[in-house]
Amino acid sequence: MDAKKDFSNSEEIDISVKPSTLGCYVTHGLMQLYKTQKFCDAILVAEGKHFPCHRFLADSISMDSCLEIYALAYAHNHHTLLRVASRHITLNFEPLSEHESFPGLDLSTVSSIVSSDQLLVSSELAVYHAVQNWVRSQPAEHFSLIKKLMEQVRLPLLTSEEITRVQKDIIAEYGHAHLQWEQLDGVGRLLKSGGLRHGMYDDWIVSLGLFVSNMQGGVVERLKTHFLGFNLQTESWEEIPPLMYLDSSGFLSVGHKLYVSGGQRLNGSVLCNLHEFDALTGRWMQLPSMSVPRREHGFLACKQKLYALGGRSGRSVLDSAESFDLEKKIWSPIASLPFAVSHFASASLNKKLYLIGGFSHTRANGLAHRGILIYNTSLNVWNQMPLAFQCYKSTAVAMDNGIFVIGGLVEESSRRETPGTVIRALISGTHKCFFLSKDGTVSQDVAIPDLPILVLPPCAVQWRRRIHVLVGNTIYQWKPGEPHWTRSRKSAPNTRVTFLTVVNGVTLKVPKKTLQPLLREASAALTALWVADN
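C-alpha cells predicted for Kelch-like 6 (534 residues):
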C-alpha cells in the first residue's frame, strides 16, 4: 500500500500540520475508509503480513487518536476496537476531555463516555467539567444539551463545596435552570448516583490480626480481631472497625467488601458465623451462617460465590465443603473433599479452587498431605495432584496463569519407631517460595527469591502484578523477574492497640477519604440530583 499516494490529496486531512510518517497516513486513511463505510473488516497488507485494519487502529492508538477511534468504533459497534479505545479513555479521561477533538464528538458518543463506571476520576467534578466544556462548544443548543448530559453526572457524589460551584455555574450560564434537590442519607446518595466511578476508590491491603486492645500491668483486658489497612495509593495506614476475638478464621474480599467466616473464640468454641464489612458504609453485618463450624479452613471467592472448604471443627478434621451465593444469600453443599484436610494454602484461579499441602489426618504415613486438591467450580468435581514435599500454613497468591506459594512450614524429617507408630516430623518455618502452574504442577521456570524474613503464617497479597508481604508493621514487595524483595518505606503507625500476630491479608477497594463522609452519613440531608427548569 502506497500510503502517501493514496491519502496525500485527501480533502479532510491537512498533511501540512500532521507528522509526515507512514503510520500517520495509514491511520488517517483507514479512519476515512471506516467513516465512509467503504470497508468493514478489510485486510491490510504491510511488509508482507496480513492483519485486519481494526487491529492496526488498535495498535496505533494514542492520546491524539483515541477519541476519534472510539467514535468510529462506537458508531460501527466494533467491540474489539471499542474495548481498546474505551480503556485508553477511562485511564486518561481528564486530559482527553480537554483535547481539541473532544468537542467534535456527537451527543451520543459523549454520553456513552461520561456514563462509564470505569472512569479513573477521583471526583465527579471532573466529569461535570468535561460536560460543561463540551456543551459550551455547542452554543445553539446549550440548555437542552446540558439537561441531557447532566443526567450522566453523579451529583450526589459531590461534596458541599463542589456542589456550590456547580450551582453557581448553572445559575450563571442557564438562568432559567436550577438544581433539583432531595433529602438523602449516605445509602440514598449511593443508590441515586448509581455507584462510584473506578477512580473514586483507593486500593488497600487489609490485614487481619489479633491485637490487645488494652493491657495494664501485663494483663490483657480485652482481645479483639483487628483490621489494619495500608492504602497503596497514598502509602498510609488506616484502621477498620474491629470484630470480636476470632482465631483461625477465613478471610477474603470481593470488591469493596470483606468477609470473615468461622474461627475460634477465646473459650475454645468454634463458630459457623459469616460477617461482612462494606467499605462504602463502614459497617459490619452478620450474614447467614455456614452449616458447620469451621476453623483453619479454606475460604475463597469465585464468580459471586464464597467457598468454605475443609478445616477443623473442635477435635474433628472436616472433608465437607459448601458455597455461599452472594446474590441469594444462601449456603449450599458442594462435593466433599477426597479426604479431611486443614492448615493448607488456598487460591482461586480460572474458575478452579486450589488447596495446597496442609495436614491430612486420615493417612497411615503421618500428618503430611503431599499433594494439591483442585476443585472445578463448573463441574463440582475434585481432582488430586502430587506434591514432592510437605508444606503447611503457607500463603497462596494467584497471578497470571499460576499460583505463587509463599513461605509457611515444612517437615524436615520423619521416622517410624515401631510398625504402626508414627513419630511426629520436625516442623520448622521456611523462607522458600515456589510457583504452581494452573495444571497443579510445580514449575522450575519461575524463580522466586527467598523471603527476607521468616513470618508465620505469611500475610501476602497481589496488587498490580506485585506480591506484597506484610511482616508485622512492615511491607515487602516483589515482582516476577526481580532478584530480591524490596522493603516499603512506610511502616504502620503507633495505634491504640498492640500487635500480637497478623494472620491473613487481602486487597480491598475503599472510597477515597473525601467521599466517605457522604456515603456513611446516617441522617438525611439536602442532596442535588439533576438540572430542572425554573
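The chain has twelve helices and 34 strands.
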